[in-house]
Amino acid sequence: MPFITYLSGLLTAQMLSDDQLILGVEIHCEEKGRCPSTCHLCRRPGKEQLSPTPVLLEVNRVAPLYSLIQDNYTKEAFRSAMMSLSWCSGKGDVIDDWCRCDLSAFDEHGLPSCSPLPQPVLRLSPSIEPSSTVIALEWLDVQPVIGTKVSDYILHHKKVDEYTDTDLYTGEFMSFAEDLLSGVGSSCVAAGRGHGEVPETNIYAVIFKCLEPDSLYKFTLYAVDTRGRHSELSTVTLRTACPLVDDTKAEEIADKIYNLYNGYTSGKEQQTAYNTLMEVSVSMLFRVQHHYNFHYEKFGDFVWRSEDELGPRKAHLILRRLEKVSSHCSTLLRSAYIQNRIDTVPYLLCCTEETRPSGMVWYNILKDIKITCEEKMVHMSRNIYYLKMS
């Protein structure tokens, strides 16, 4: 029903008197407003005329709805109902800071379901830009003030590409509380917090430090409560940056290959050129080809000269490696100039000295664990690509 009708009903039931205004609520009869003649709250000097469209309320102070009720028993019942609806899905009672579920509020596994376990939202950390080997992710703690108690967060990550059957390769699962905060997990993954974040906001973070360049990774996260329930999954799919290259060294190698190919090429020189081109990384080989063609285009294309000097078989083994460069990275590796840069990013790495008894994880609340964080400097090596301006 319209709120104005609700107020009129209270007046009719003698729950409101003519000399008692409702706390926090004022009703104004504006130029376009119309109020029923039975509502004493609408009577204002000079506002007696009626107009067709009502402008009902202006709230000047927030007050709980149950405070409008004068009877103590009804007020308490209303308060309990509102608390149950807000925190326990209306299927249980709020006791201190937890929900006592009704007998009908249990799921198919026999676990109480009146206090839903919220889904955490995994996201890329704004503090650290992804590099070729490092990605930082974070999420906000989803434990509510009242109701379910989060015991742990479970992370899962795996590399995804067309050469791997993602159903067979399951990736790696990690417990945020047991593996990462305790330091038992891999040295390539660390628990942390974004630099400058307020601790009270409870933003958890994880840094993956040993990823493969130019690779697609799928990360998933879900929460676990003290009864063993799992939340819905949150998924993020990200690609690491292109492999690092030393552009100066790539240009030196291109010059070396030109000198080996120039003039009469002995068997020793051919083998030296072949070994050199097979030993460099795929991204470096792509960059060597770029510099060779840029500087010595009149002498002959890199592919043609390699086939002519090394023979079709060895040249094929070298050139086949270039197929492993993604289309995205091949565009960047054709840049006019590539600069190396090392970014130093401050970050809070966190751990705990508390030990959690084996098999009792579900009964420990994550917020109750004492976590200490120390500022560390994360070094990020990057390539800066300078494209040609047309």
Automatic annotation (TrEMBL):
Coiled-coil regions, chain positions: none
GO cellular component, one term: endosome
Domain Astrotactin-2 C-terminal beta-hairpin, first and last residues per copy: 338-383
Domain Annexin-like: 242-334
Ranges for domain Astrotactin-1/2 Fn3: 118-240
GO molecular function, one term: inositol 1,3,4,5 tetrakisphosphate binding
Taxonomy, superkingdom: Eukaryota
InterPro entries in UniProt: Annexin-like, ASTN1_2_Fn3, ASTN_2_hairpin, Astrotactin, FN3_sf
An individual GO BP term: neuron migration
Record PANTHER family: ASTROTACTIN-1-LIKE, ASTROTACTIN-2
The protein's name in its UniProt record: Astrotactin-2 isoform X2
This protein's encoding gene: ASTN2
